[in-house]
Amino acid sequence: MRFFSAVRVQENNGQVPSERLMAEMGKLIEEFMAKGVLLDTAGLRPTSEGVRLRNNHGKLSRTDGPFTETREVIGGYAILKADSMAEALKLTERFLEVHGDEWNVECEVRQMEDMDADCGKAAA
């Protein structure tokens, strides 16, 4: 199973990763990649560089960032491979522990749909 872990942060608070955090995160990413439990990960650029597109009953609209009404934003993500939600949560806990007491960060973990299997069912 695949899981999406959205890393939620407070934007524009001036928080910058320390050298220690970057080094520890690099080690963790290497470990998870070697074990095959981390499929992809990245940080995201600030909302000031983003765009929201919306379809409201057929009417498309666009909102350019920054998105000031948002207190917390998705600052990064990880796509994990795990046998259960419990295992995905343990992997995410390891990620959060690397941050130590330097950061106030949370992750939302959700199982991803298997689109190949779901689309195959619809075609049958």
TrEMBL record:
Query: Origin, by domain of life?
Result: Bacteria
Where in this chain does the record put each YCII-related domain? 15-94
Q: Which Pfam families does UniProt cross-reference here? A: YCII
Q: Supply the InterPro entries for this chain.
A: Dimeric_a/b-barrel (IPR011008), YCII (IPR005545)
**Can you tell me which family this protein belongs to?**
Belongs to the YciI family.
- What protein name is recorded for this chain? Transcriptional regulator
According to its UniProt entry, this protein's organism is Lysobacter dokdonensis DS-58
